[in-house]
Amino acid sequence: MSRLDSFIRRLEAQRLVLNWAAAAISGRDGLVLELGLGNGRTYDHLREILPGRAIHVFERKLSVNPRSMPPDDRLMLGDMRETLPEFGLRHGRAAVLVHVDATTGVPERDRVELAWLPGHVAALAADEALVLAGAGLEHPRLRPAALPEGVPAGRYFAYRRVTEG
Ligand SMILES: C[S@@+](CC[C@H](N)C(=O)[O-])C[C@H]1O[C@@H](n2cnc3c(N)ncnc32)[C@H](O)[C@@H]1O
Questions:
Q1: Whose CA is nearest to atom 2 of ligand 1?
Q2: Which of 23, 31, 48, 153 has its CA at a distance of 20 to 30 angstroms from the CA of residue 71?
Q3: What is the best residue among 80, 86, 117, 120 to mutate for testing ligand 1's pocket, by most ligand atoms within 8 Å of CB?
Q4: Phi, psi at 126, each rounded to 5°
């Protein structure tokens, strides 16, 4: 499959998964976290399908389309390795949806450079929160969950944050 085809399928899967997640968290209070603002496409989609929901965005290097700029008080600029734990000190495990889109598209590199990320995500996610990711996350507190119909296996990943005993 060409990289163009692969990219298109990834975006289709993203939209399906985000729409599904928005419906899944309706009726449950809590924060939404967008990890990796990039161009702002998925952030823009999230704020459209989750009006009124607090969406906090994490990014180390701004390259966002100006139309998708989050408000200052919802944008955590800096390396997530530091900004996520800082956010946790202020908010605790208050997220009901975490969308992890921090990958580079080179899985071997991401596995090494983002090895710390699943633990940081688990530390911010409320019990049974939904965690979505473009690459697999491995952590004992993240339980793999089924994806909505139409998302090919391995294209996107979903997890539930394990309930603390
Ligand atoms: C694939 S892009 C995000 C795409 C975005 N969700 C969109 O729809 O346009 C990944 C982003 O994650 C950011 N990122 C990767 N590692 C990071 C880290 N450790 N701290 C903060 N941002 C990071 C990169 O700077 C990049 O902008």
A1: 38
A2: 23
A3: 80
A4: -70, 165
Q: Is any ligand 1 atom within 6 A of the Cβ of residue 44?
A: no
Q: Contact, 46 vs 55, CB < 8 A?
A: yes
Cα–Cα distance measured from residue 55 to residue 42, given in angstroms and rounded to the nearest whole number: 11
Identify the structural domains of the chain with CATH numbers, from first to last: 3-161 (3.40.50.150)
- Per-residue pLDDT of the chain in tens (165 residues, 90 and over written 9): 899 998 898 899 999 999 999 999 999 999 999 999 999 999 999 999 999 999 999 999 999 999 999 999 999 999 999 999 999 999 999 999 999 999 887 878 888 889 999 999 999 999 999 999 998 999 999 999 999 999 988 889 999 999 987
Tell me if 58 CB under 6 Å of ligand 1: yes
* 15 ligand 1 Cβ < 6 A: no
**What CA–CA distance (Å, rounded) separates 153 from 159?**
14
For the CA of 41, the nearest atom of ligand 1: 8
Nearest C-alpha neighbor of 26 from the set 52, 7, 63: 52
